[in-house]
Every structure is written in structure tokens, then in C-alpha cells.
């Protein structure tokens, strides 16, 4: 079947998308994808096409690529947007560049728009082998999915069933020109080493190795789908409502998880964490066991790439972003009739009769006491213990002071003011960063 027919079949489910955006590097693969789609658009009714070129600025040769892409798009009548991104160096420049590129592409997508990228079957085979050598699990060995959510739209890889040889044959038959990235020849980079040294040797011994590896990735993807279904069933019992729904933090009840086998625990927690953080390696999962098995009165923490899990009152809680930083205090509140934005700690509002005097918000330091009707002066630490509040929350729960007098504690009605100055404090905590999507 011709490439154009296979491509049309792959993109058909998204023909109602408001726009198709093509990630155009200027290399062989994306050039072929752009040409195929622009040609199809002349005889098929497709959403509006446009291309996006991301310029990393990592090498001198790349400075000429935007102009090349502009000429290519102009010849095909496709609008082009050029994005300049800054890549933060680190342990892996490849990874940093990829993350910067996808972040920029995601930012360009409107609601329900489609981003098309040109990865092919050879790329899928390399990905599987690369991840296998890194000791990846089933999810990693499932390779690149054909589609996944990205930003406000969807990322689609419609050429995953096509070989690079097919794309090159098409490009030469159509007289297309493309740029060659000099860094692709650098075998010090792991993927280039696989592409230049290992894959040719495999193909020489097993001519169908690319197709076989891609097929193995498809089998593993199906296995991962089954594991995801099992995790969904196991998490259903653990996703109970917390005693503090206003806390609005991701959490799970621990008891239903501990009744599962260790493998099912890891599968369920891994699936739950996938929306919040990068996955820990196998050795790092000892942190989960320590969190799970700690004494009842302990306050265990499992630190991960993008946040941490804490255990409190029979639940595990995901904390990230501002939740891991000490909020600024004190914060004056000159007009309690208006909500107060707390630096690094959400929003505070007051319901009822505002108290008189100079007010400010502080956080617990120790030794605070609160006057309660019928109970006299009570130690705040004991009151918070009685309320059963999670330990990680006690140091950032807003406290309203007038001079050195503690008037009320946010979100705990029994610790609000009464009498002539009856009011309640309502606190909406900081947004918990969701990590990687």
C-alpha cells in the first residue's frame, strides 16, 4: 500500500480536529511527513495544516535550518512557525533538548488540535533496544505510543508502521531535499551508537529485526494496558475520600493497598504516580516499602523526582511545588473583608464579622494557645492533635493573630472565633504541581 494511503488511514480518526500542526525539523522524516500531508490536502478534505520548527541553538549548523524549513513550507503552501527555545544543560543534553522541544510544541497547541511527528518503525526499534539496555519495565519497553495527550491537544505519530527506507525512497522519488544533523554522526551519544553501530549489525544477521522489535513493543504495550486495567481496579478501593476534602491533595488510603501482593502494590502506586512524577528506578522502590512499613506514629517520607509521598493518618499524600517550601510569614491583613493571598500558601478568606484591630496571618511555631468558649485557654498543639490533622499540614495552616493573641485557626470550625466577633477562616491551599502528564 502506498505511503500516502497508509498515512491517510492513520490520521483518519483525527479528521475532525480544528487544526493539524506538523513538527518540522527539516530532516528526512519530518520533510516526508510534511510533503505527504500537503499533497493529501490537495485531494482530501483535511483540517488546516501548519508546521512548527523548534530551534534549539545548540550548534552552528542549525542556524540555517529555519530558512530551509521556510523555503520548504512556502513551496508547499503551508504556514510555518519558528520557535526559539533555551536548553538547560545537565547530565543528558539529549533529554534536555527533547523536553524543551516538547514543552514548546505543547504550548502551541490549541484545544483539541493535533500535533503530528515523524517517528518511524526504525525509531521504535531503537527506542525499545535503548530502554531495554537501561533496564526499563513493561511501560518503558512498550515504546512510543501512536498517540497521547499533549498540552491542550493530542500528539500523533502516524508513521510508526513505516520504515526509514520507505521514507527515503519516497523523498528521492519526489526530489525532496532535507537537512542532515551533524550531531547524528556522534556515536558518543547513546542513541547514535545504537543507530550507527548496533542496528546495522542486527539487520545484517536478522534482516527483519526492526519489524520484530517494533512488534515486540506492540505486545508489551498490550501487556501494559492490562496492567493499567488491574491498577485501575486496585486503586478504586484506595481512592476513598479523605477526612479533609478541602485539602485538595492527591492521596490514597493505605490499607487497601497493603492487602495486595507487593507486585500489585507497585503496579498500582506506579500508575497513580505516573501523573505526578518521573518514575523511580527499581532500587528506589525500597522507599515505598519504608513508607508502607513504618511505625504508626512515624512520619515517613519517600522523596521522588518531582515531589514526595508522605504518610499520615492511614493515607499516603502526594506533595510538590509550594507544599515543599516553608510559607512566608507573618502576612498583614489590613482588610479582612477581602480575600488575602498568602505567599506560597494559597488564599485565605473570612466569613462573618471581621475582628477589630491590626490583624496578621502567621504559622505555628510552638507554644501557641487559643481561647475557646467553655474550655478556656487550650494549647494549640493539643487541639490540632485532637483534630487529627496530618502532620505535614500543621505547620502551614493559617493562624489569625491580633497582636500576640491567637484568634482563630483556618478551616477548623471548632477553632474559630465566637461571641461578638464570630467568624470563620476559609483557606484554599496552594496548587499542588501535577508534575509530568
TrEMBL record:
It is an enzyme of class 6 (ligase). Its main location: cytoplasm. InterPro entries: Lysidine-tRNA-synth_C, Rossmann-like_a/b/a_fold, TilS/TtcA_N, tRNA_Ile_lys_synt, tRNA_Ile_lys_synt_N, tRNA_Ile_lys_synt_subst-bd. ATP binds at residues 25-30. Residues 359-427 form the Lysidine-tRNA(Ile) synthetase C-terminal domain. One of its GO terms (biological process) is tRNA modification. Keywords: ATP-binding, Cytoplasm, Ligase, Nucleotide-binding, tRNA processing. Its EC number is 6.3.4.19. GO terms for molecular function: ATP binding; tRNA(Ile)-lysidine synthase activity. It holds the Pfam family TilS. GO terms for cellular component: cytoplasm. It comes from the Bacteria. Belongs to the tRNA(Ile)-lysidine synthase family. The N-terminal region contains the highly conserved SGGXDS motif, predicted to be a P-loop motif involved in ATP binding. Ligates lysine onto the cytidine present at position 34 of the AUA codon-specific tRNA(Ile) that contains the anticodon CAU, in an ATP-dependent manner. Cytidine is converted to lysidine, thus changing the amino acid specificity of the tRNA from methionine to isoleucine. This is tRNA(Ile)-lysidine synthase. It comes from Zestomonas carbonaria.
